[in-house]
Write a structure and sequence with these properties.
By secondary structure, the protein is mainly α. The protein folds into two domains: about 1-150, no CATH class; about 160-220. It has helices at about 15-20, 30-35, 35-45, 50-70, 75-90, 100-115, 120-135, 145-155, 160-175, 180-190, 200-215. The two termini are about 25 Å apart.
Length: about 220
């Protein structure tokens, strides 16, 4: 979730229809509830032209909002609403993206109050990335120290996950701590596959390898 390129017990009938789920097939586990949002997000990020992504994220953000409103106590829904908004902010760029980033931060913080381990601590990973990528005061709320503390929390919950290892590795490299960052990127490449998230895993692995190749080319 680089800031420029930078996370359904019973879906309501309208949501089930929009995702092509018959009523009898509506999933129930929290991870399954948000799976349609996850899959659409991956389609946008890894298969759609960059110039179209901001608009597509905006449409998906509305679907995510409807999902979180229909499941007000489901942390996973808030997490994914926050991820989509932060992705839209990254796609739009500039100062106009700051309000989206602030809204995403609020949603992620609300999700932590409900369940900090939801989706293997994804809220911590996404919050950390926002604090790492958003400009600091006086323009924004970015805070490198806060970002690192949040990355550490996400890794404590999901030490082998592809996302926390990738984003923390990227953060370390951006901070000039390249040897440390490389270790986390290599660990991210070894992360176990996530069922139902094949496209996201494949796309993330390409990002990881591209970053490893870049630092190797730069001789770091």
């Amino acid at each position: 979730m680089s800031f420029r390129t930078a996370i359904i017990g019973s879906l309501l009938a309208v949501t089930a229809i929009s995702f092509g789920l018959p009523a009898a097939a509506q999933p129930s586990a929290p991870d399954e509830i948000v799976l349609p949002i996850q899959r659409q997000w991956a389609e946008i990020k890894y298969r759609q032209p960059e110039k179209e992504q901001a608009r597509l994220y905006r449409d998906l953000a509305e679907q995510a909002r409807q999902l979180s409103e229909s499941h007000p106590n489901l942390a996973a829904a808030l997490v994914w609403e926050g991820i989509v908004l932060s992705s839209e902010a990254g796609a739009r760029g500039g100062l106009g993206a700051l309000s989206l980033a602030k809204e995403a931060r609020q949603l992620l913080e609300e999700s932590l109050k409900l369940n900090e381990t939801a989706l293997n601590g994804s809220a911590y990973t996404s919050l950390a990335t926002l604090y790492a990528k958003v400009p600091g005061w006086p323009l924004g709320f970015g805070d490198k120290e806060r970002a690192e503390a949040l990355f550490r929390k996400s890794l404590a919950i999901n030490p082998d996950g592809i996302d926390p290892n990738f984003f923390y590795g990227e953060y370390l490299i951006d901070a000039g701590r390249v040897p440390e960052g490389r270790q986390f990127l290599q660990k991210a490449l070894r992360a176990p596959a996530r069922p139902g998230r094949e496209l996201a895993d494949a796309g993330r692995r390409e990002e990881i390898q591209a970053l490893l190749d870049r630092i190797a080319t730069e001789g770091k």
